[in-house]
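Our preliminary data section would be incomplete without showing what the modeling component actually yields. Below, a chain of 362 amino acids is followed by its predicted structure, encoded as C-alpha cells that our downstream tools consume directly.
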Amino acid sequence: MYGLGTAVETKQVEGQIRQPVDLRSDTVTKPTDAMREAMASAEVGDDVYGEDPTVNRLEARAAEVFGREAALFVPTGSMGNQIAIRLHTQHGQEVICEARSHVLDWEMAMMAAFSGCQARAVAAERGILTWEHIKPAIGAKIYYRAQTGLICLENSHNMAGGTVTPVEVMREIWDGAKDARLPVHLDGARVFNAATALGVSVAELTEGFDTVMFCLSKGLGAPVGSMLVGSGEAIEQARMHRKALGGGMRQAGVLAAAGLIALEEMPAVLTADHANARMLAGTVARFKSAEIDLGAVQTNIVIFTLVGNGDAAAFVGRLKARGVLASATGPHAVRFVTHHDVTLRDCERAAGVVAEELEGLG
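Predicted structure:
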C-alpha cells in the first residue's frame, strides 16, 4: 500500500484544534444526525431469518429505485461484487474487466478463490470499456480455451479518476452481451456519482445489467453497507452466497436504517462534491510539477501524477503534516476524494496547501 489508511491527526492552530481535511476517500464519512437518530430508533429482527423489518424496507426500496425485482443488503461492496461473480460464472471461466478495475486489483483475488475464475483484463482509455474493447476479449468457442463467463464494468471508475461511462456506451455493451449470451455485472460502488454527472437516473444508467452492486458507505455517507440488486431468482441465490461468505448480519436494522437515509437523502448532495473535486483539480493543473487529465475529473475523484518521478508517498506525507490527508495510489500518483464531510471551505484550505507544496517541487 502506498499511502492508503494513514492515521488521522489533529493540528493545534492558534490555540484551537483544527481537524484535518480528510480527502483520502469518501469511505471516511461519518453518519449524519438523521442517520444516527434512525439507527437509535430502528426496529430490528434476525435478518438471517428474513425478520428484520428495517433491512427488508431497505432492500425493497433499493430494488424499487433501480427498477429491479429484489435487492440484498451486504456488509461491503467487495462482498456484493464477489457474490455477483459467483452467481454468473462457473469454475474455470474468465471474467472480462478493465485493467484497473476494483474487482481485479482491490478484492484479494476473490474471483479466483471463491468463484474459480480468472480475470481477462482489458485496458481502456480513462477506464471506459466499449464493446469494441470487449468483443475481441471474449473466449473463442473451442474446448481448450477458457470460456468467458461474465463481463464486469465499473461506473464510476475509481482508479481511472472517477470517470463515467455514458448510457449510450453501456447500451452497446448490453446489446453485444445479449447477442453473445453473456451476463453483465456492474460494480456501481459510486453509481449515484455517475448518474449525477450524466444527469440520468440510476435505473436508466443500469437497466441492461443482470446485477448491480452499489455502496451506501461512500458518497451516500452511510457508516456501513452495500446493496446488490437483480432478479428475484438471482437475489435468492445471492442470499445463500452471502451466508457462505459470513455476511449474515442478524439484527442489521441498525445499519439498514442509516442506509435508508443515505438512499433517500444523500444523492442530492453529490453535485457539491463534484464541484469541489473540479476546484481541486483546477488548482493542481496550474503547476508544471504535476500532470492531470482535467477531462477525467467528472465526479468526486481527483488523481494526478507528480512529474519527474516525484515521490507520491513523500508528497502525501508533507500534506498530512499540514493538515490535509490524501492517498498515494502509486509511486508517483496522488488521489483526492471529496465527500459530504468536507465543505467548500475545507477544500479551499486544502487547495492552498496543495498549491504551495506543488510550487515547492519546481
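DSSP finds 14 helices and 15 strands in the chain. The chain has a mean pLDDT of 95. Preliminary results of this kind motivate Aim 1 of the renewal.
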